[in-house]
Amino acid sequence: MKKERFLSLRVKIAIGIILVCLLVGLVAIVAVRRIATDIIDREYEDRAEQITEAVAHSIDPNDVKEVTDAVLEIYYGVDEIVPSSEWGSDAWNAYMSNYEGIEDLEVFQKIRDEFRVYQDIFGVDCIYLMNEKPEITNAIYIVDGAYDDDACPPGCVDAYEDGYWPREGDSLIPASITNEEQYGWLVSAGYPVIVDGEVVAHVCLDISMNDIKAKERNYVLAATLAIIVLTILVVVVATLIMNKTLIKQIRMLSDTAKNYCYENNEVQHHSFEALQINSRDEIEQLLSSMKQMESDMNTNITALLDTKTVLKETEEEANTMRSLAVRDALTGIRNKTAYDAEVKKIEEEMAAGPIAFGLAMVDLNFLKRTNDTYGHEKGNVAIKKLCMLVCDVFEHSPVFRIGGDEFIVILRNRDYEQVDELVDEFNAHLATYQNDATLEPWEQISAAIGYARFDQNKDKTVEEVFQRADQAMYACKTAMKAERKD
């Protein structure tokens, strides 16, 4: 007869406990990951929807309608629409040439500058304005607040899958999270701009979630390692138990673990807490460990939920504080605090390797005389008029107000390369103002401008570039005074 093989009770108990612990560990890992992901995703989705709503309510809907109508008038007059999937092709370039002049519209530049201010305030990747055509599943870019080559030009067409854009009767584009090879993790949302009860366009935005997803992975990995360590300890203790009277308790633990995820579908679970085993041996210790693990998980979940609540309660205050910290109250552009932060970033780039940038200093002339003669309100008008001129001329560069009548421009890319032409354009506008007899005296503004490029052979800090730009500006101011005397 063939001898029947069997497993000892000790081995059976060990195998049973190992399986139970692995199941509980797996359930715990899945639960932690799911809860952490849901909380983080919901927080980012809420933030995306709140920001789009805030921006949509802050911009002038009539401005949105004006620039949207201008783009759509061209769109409906084009014989063939070339989508963005053919970006850079001859056909696409020919199609986009129809929209030349849209970016020069004052209302386009106004909305784009507002978007850029909000991008800086909220720290998001991109805010843009789109109009959808559901009958052909096309979305048309109207204004993109991204800087330089990252921006989609007006008239650029993206195709979208049916069901993505809101249909008739709906207006809000709910936040959605995507993970694409080109951009990584992104949360996107849209909010309608309504004029006379009709949706004109949608304010949309993208927020990168790559950093928070990396932190989430690290958190789940740490929790997984902790659960694995705890599981190993439990298995070592459980394998020492060989008394067959323990099987009932083991089965009780096993059944509880198997049904752990199905307890009323609640976020927190109390299955192990409800068990009572008074065997005064390792099984009782095992139950105690399970209860502690369950308690720790519930504590962590509660902490996450409490954190979410606190974040929601403080979000408005935090947004207000961030806005006040980096935005100039009079002109609406970024202030000295924002400039100092940008300087720190530039110096980090300088430490990493050669970079190309410059600084342009602009100083309003005769502000004190304007204030003394016409009052501070007229002086403020002159400051804002100069600010608008600087932003219009150096439209591809960030502009900061760092003093009462002083502005600074960080020159990069095209503005850096064409700074001489831009300075001439700036001075030409000033000459036009001063020779325009229809303007009030405080609108006939005068200003001095000077710039300096970063020289890696002699500049160690941004401050040194700043000093040379400041000297160039004062040299310009001195020359202007000399001309007035002549």
Largest sheet: 6 strands, antiparallel
Look at the helices and sheets and give the structural class.
alpha+beta
Coarse shape: elongated
Calculate the terminal CA-CA distance, rounded to whole Å: 126 Å
Q: Give, in spatial order, the strands making up the sheet with the most strands.
A: 3-2-1-6-5-4
Please work out how many helical segments DSSP would assign.
Answer: 14
Helix and strand sequence: HHHHEEEEEEHHHHHEHHEEHHEH
Number of strands: 10
Note poorly predicted spans.
none
| Total number of distinct structural domains | 3
Instruction: Round the mean pLDDT to the nearest integer and report it.
Output: 83
Estimate percent helicity.
55-70%
Share of β-strand residues: 5-15%
CA radius of gyration is 32 Å
Account of the protein in words:
This protein has 486 residues and is an alpha+beta fold. The protein has helices at 9-58, 61-77, 90-96, 106-122, 210-238, 247-258, 271-274, 282-326, 336-352, 367-374, 376-393, 413-417, 419-434, 462-485, and strands at 126-133, 138-144, 157-159, 173-180, 184-195, 198-208, 358-364, 399-401, 406-411, 447-453. The strands form two sheets. A six-stranded antiparallel sheet has the order 3-2-1-6-5-4. Strands 8-9-7-10 form a four-stranded antiparallel sheet, sandwiched between helices. The termini are far apart. The relative contact order is 0.09.
SSE layout and pairing:
Blueprint: H1 9-58, H2 61-77, H3 90-96, H4 106-122, E1 126-133, E2 138-144, E3 157-159, E4 173-180, E5 184-195, E6 198-208, H5 210-238, H6 247-258, H7 271-274, H8 282-326, H9 336-352, E7 358-364, H10 367-374, H11 376-393, E8 399-401, E9 406-411, H12 413-417, H13 419-434, E10 447-453, H14 462-485
Antiparallel strand pairs: 1-2, 1-6, 2-3, 4-5, 5-6, 7-9, 7-10, 8-9
Helix pairs in contact: 1-5, 1-6, 1-8, 5-8, 10-11
